[in-house]
Amino acid sequence: MRHQLPTVLILASGRGERFTASGGAVHKLRAPLGSTTVLEHTLAAVRASGLPWHVEDEGHPGMGDSIAAAVRATATAPGWLVLPGDLPLVLPETLSSIAAVLADCAVAVPVHQGKRGHPVGFAAECLSGLLALAGEQGAASVVRQQAQRERVRWLEVEDAGTVTDIDTVQDLARAEALLAARRT
């Protein structure tokens, strides 16, 4: 049932300054990737997962502020998957897997080849910690707090999209190559 599923929070309010500094002509989320944009690829994966979702695209000073605002907008959700909008190659199956393991933990973190990725899932018990976030650090403090309580699940995934974010034009070129390889 849809109302019992965590909500995917797509964070799309960053300024994308590193992308522009690396030579990007448009905001990184509007940058072309294949036949569409970076953000549209991310949204397509979220839609295909069947999970409810919310795009947070107001201008917030930092990732922590963006997460807090998105959680506030969806405060009645039974949990959240925090997904930066610049991860266009994340697979719908990964979103579903993270959502499923939240039944047994407070925080679920995908790990691909030893590297932590996104989306990071948070159960409803993390609500107050997520609402208190501010600044650039994102939700690392909530993950640390839950790890001290042994309530974090590190989920090994075969999805390179969990660690393929677009911060520079070089990242975009790498994502384009990975996308092309998926199609062959």
3D architecture notes:
The chain is an alpha/beta fold and 184 residues long. It is built from 7 helices and 9 strands, in the order E-H-E-E-H-E-H-E-H-E-E-E-H-H-E-H. The protein has helices spanning 17-21, 38-49, 63-73, 92-101, 127-131, 140-148, 169-183, and strands at residues 7-11, 32-33, 36-37, 53-56, 79-84, 107-112, 115-116, 120-123, 152-156. The radius of gyration is 16 Å and the shape is globular. The chain starts with 6 loop residues before the first strand and ends with a helix.
Determine the structural class based on helices, strands and strand pairing.
Answer: alpha/beta
Order of helices and strands: EHEEHEHEHEEEHHEH
Overall helicity:
25-40%
Rg over alpha carbons: 16 Å
**Low-confidence parts:** none
Specify the overall morphology: globular
Please give the alpha-carbon distance between the first and last residues: 35 Å
β-sheet strand percentage: 15-25%
Number of helices: 7
Number of DSSP-assigned strands: 9
Largest sheet, in brief, is: 7 strands, mixed
Mean pLDDT: 94
